[in-house]
Amino acid sequence: MNSLVRIFAVMHKELRQLSRDRLTFGMIIGMPLLQLLLFGYAINTDVRNLSAAYVDEADSHLSRQLIADMGAAQVVTFGQRVASPGELVALLDAGGISVGVAIPDDFDRRVIARDRPALQLLVDGTDPIVLGVAERLAAIPLRFDSQTGIEERQRMMEVRNFYNPERRSAVNIVPGLVGVVLTMTMVLFTSVAVVREKERGNLELLINTPVRSTELMLGKIVPYIVIGLVQLALILAVGRTVFAVPIMGSEWQVLLASLVFICANLSLGLLISTVAASQFQAMQMTFFVFLPSILLSGFMFPFEGMPEIAQAIAEVLPLTHFNRLIRGIVLRGADISMMARDMAALGVFTAAALTLAIARFNKRLD
Amino acid sequence: MKSNIEFAIQARVLTRRFGSLVAVNEVDLDIPSGRIFGFLGPNGSGKSTTIRMLCGLLRPSAGRATVLGLDAARDSEALKNRIGYMTQSFSLYQDLSVGENLQFIGEIHAIPRRERRRRVGELLSRYNLAGRERQRAGTLSGGQRQRLALAAAIMHRPQLLLLDEPTSAVDPSNRRDFWEGLFELAERGTTILVSTHYMDEAIRCHNLAILDRGVKVADGSPQALGESIGTHVVEVRAGNADAAHLALGKIPRIVSLARLGSRLRAQIPKQTAEPLAIVGEALRNAGIEAEINTVFPDIEDIFVAVTELREHGPIDRESGGTPIRNPVIPRGVAESRAETAPARPRDSARDDRKGDHGGRVEDSGR
Predict the structure, then answer these.
(1) Residue B15: which domain range?
(2) Structure pTM?
(3) Strand order through the sheet with B231-238
(4) Residue B363: inside a domain, yes or no?
(5) Test mutation, B82, B108, B116, chain A, max A CBs within 10 A
(6) pLDDT tens by residue, A326-362
(7) Closest-CA distance of chain A to residue B112, Å
């Protein structure tokens, strides 16, 4: 009974302090929104409308058709037609274009003979994503007679796009962002909240009261669980209205997975707070976790594409498991029971971090 | 109060090391219940470390302390309900109001709501904070903060109150009020242990222990301490205190010489039969007229006698003839005797002439 009173006392105090800390309060709402807009609009891995130029020395029916096809695919936008391949290279050098298409004067003959490449794509390969796009351009079919039916036989492989027919990266980004924002805020807020007490000397007073370590930790954690859920709702709501990201699975399962994930992050934050001596150190340690989380969890790059060692590291990070869960539930409409392994991983992480944190936080100064 | 224990605190060979530094070295303490007990010592003398061991914040490296009949290290949790602790720096929440801070402390001690409200109201009016309930603690003055901290420390009516340099940031008149509050508590049966480096505060305590670099060098009532030190104290009032200082500095029997405005206090070992004669002769030889008296040692004399002289022994000046160095005294002493600070910038010729005309007693009045 007294235990509950004390937990409530800490919670109450924490919320009061939080409501007076306008900066933190702003971060709670501002950070998810900012990241959502940044990732949703600006950071777009679907490349469209790369600036391009071409030289068409053949100027035949086929060459003009090809240029029109390329333009129609919207991958490149032809800004200008130049007179020679040399000018294309100059434009590339100057950074004026990302892609140049050079069509030689014997283009038609080469297409018929099919003995050597009929044309050249000059690509600014410094950004591998642009290079990848250019290679897609190279797949556009080249033949005189598009009615012969040879095409069907030649394209043995067909690509079918599941879950994201419009190839919008927002669909992948928004659920992933839930995890990123929660990692960022939950770990940071809790670690800073405890370390701040240490820094300002409040802790020396607190540990001289009957409040127990567990009560103190719980009282500090619970307000942030609520904040985490607010952020979750905010991101999914904005994702739905602004970026039209649907929630295919059950909302309850989203909530359940998020709760477990929030707890994992809060425990990690508490653990950091028992190690860090200052708010600055807590921030540094948070970023030490945050950066690999963003890069390795599958949020930025496909998990399967990473080297094994990176995958092994990623398996330790809560965000990796949460990304699988949230994308599965939100985008594929998967059931949480199909991903029990990831739920279990988050549970184990929480238990381990929390145990360590409580063990490390003794009510002594030595 | 229910304290039928004779000693609120008993410590035996209490020792604390930090690495190779011995912060507290084999300290024995017997602190009677219901009294105000002072720890006097300069910064770094081990006062805070001792207090932290007594309330269970630090574990002793050796020895043990029994506090209110319980082992301070082993039963620290049980002690938390019976001890009030006021940290050296303000450790309440600056971003919470006066009322909210007290409410939080009351909740942490699980005081029932109705009783808590009554208690908070009572403490607010007793410590002159009524009408400031809504003010943020961070905006209070030094004196108000100390009163708030004291109110928080006694919220749960502790039997023992540990105060770590409670008045180091408080002006003299607020300090007096603060001590009035302490006497009131002591009269109601609370045992109070207070550390300080102010001499004028030390003299208010019923009993006193003087700490010097982790070692307890003396303890007892101020009266008993004064009687027990191994020196006579001779006070010299000379018109030309500079010249008197110089003259007396050459006398090997004088083991300590302190300057207070126009007065000097000289300490001469107890075994010397006629201390006045020694001082009088030295001054006559130098042609200085002065008024000399043996006086009862004040706290500073005691402090110098038990710390300085313990280390150096009587200063041997017969070989080198170096002038006696001013005793190293704690910071607070200089503050409480502000008038001694500026050495009068007079040229010595004028001083000597004045000396010839007969010493003019000049006292800025302490």
Answers:
(1) 7-225
(2) 0.73
(3) B256-260, B263-269, B231-238, B290-295
(4) no
(5) B108
(6) 888 888 888 888 888 999 999 999 999 988 988 887 7
(7) 9
